[in-house]
Amino acid sequence: MLFRSIALPIRDVSSLKREPIDALKHWYDYDKTVPLQPMVIRDSNASLEGDHAYRYKIVEINAVYDDERFQVHFFEPEKQKDVPTLVYLPGIGRYNVQRDFRITGSRDMDMILVHRLALLGYRVIYPIYNGTYERWNGSSLSIDFREKPAEAQSNWIRGVQDLFRVVDYLCQAEDLNQDKLICVGLSNGAARAITAMSIDDRFKAG
Predict the structure, then answer these.
(1) CA distance 75 to 119
(2) DSSP characters over 129-177
(3) In terms of Cα–Cα distance, which of 83, 82, 174, 72 is closest to 120?
(4) Which of 40, 92, 168, 198 might form a disulfide with 188, Cβ 3.0–4.6 angstroms?
(5) φ, ψ for residue 56 (rounded to 5)?
(6) Residues near 147 by Cβ (< 8 Å), separated by ≥ 6?
(7) Cα(149)–Cα(63) distance, rounded to whole angstroms?
């Protein structure tokens, strides 16, 4: 027999109480006095090779936990000014395996979408969130939510805190029009975006 049915365990959540977001906001609190200490890893003065109509730079900043630092990738229009700034959150595939962050030659859906948005003239910000790319922690987020929910919850919260930290940097160090700050996510990233926008009113759309 080539195929057979497999009985998967189903967790009954019908009796669980769904908390309103206002009751959960304190989970995402962090010490805003922790210095950002930004460091430019790559300057945007040089355009990317090829026909890309945007400039690319990398800035590294402090996270708000465990003395970690992480990189933030900027895809910026070469000529247009005062364009909407999109902060991007990737899908769950970026949390399931370690891989290098590649801006060219990548076939993953997240990078394809980031490139498309940048080529449309948006300023796209793509942070390396906790548990993604070189910050992968060796686990699978989709499995963790089922088998290690406390650890998965912690990783989820840290990812949202990374997002807020990037906005802190944008507001302090970058030429940001906060009225045009947008939160964009793919799949699991879209769920995180909804969480973030319900907590942080600096985002104007998503």
Answers:
(1) 9
(2) -TTSGGG--SS-HHHHHHH-HHHHHHHHHHHHHHHHHHHHHHHHHS---
(3) 83
(4) 92
(5) -130, 130
(6) none
(7) 22
- Angle between the N-to-C axes of helices 149-173 and 188-199, in degrees from 0 to 180, rounded to the nearest 10: 60
CB atoms within 10 A of CB 104: 11
Q: For the residues of 57-92, what is the DSSP string, one character each? A: EEEEEE-SSTT-EEEEEEEEESS--SPPEEEEE--G
Separation CA 116–CA 84 (nearest Å): 14
Mean pLDDT within 21-26: 78
Interatomic CA distance for residues 196 and 186, integer angstroms: 14
Tell me the C-alpha distance between 29 and 170, whole Å.
19
Mean residue pLDDT across the chain: 82
Q: Does pLDDT of 93 surpass 70?
A: yes
Predicted TM-score (pTM) of this structure: 0.84
- Give me 126's structure tokens: 């793509």
Nearest alpha carbon to residue 65 among 158, 149, 189: 158
69 phi and psi, to 5 degrees? Answer: -125, 155
Q: Mean pLDDT, to the nearest integer, of 50-54?
A: 61
CA–CA distances in Å: residue 189 to residues 38, 91, 203: 25, 5, 15
Cβ atoms of residues 88 and 122 within 8 Å:
no
Number of H helices, E strands in the chain: 4, 6
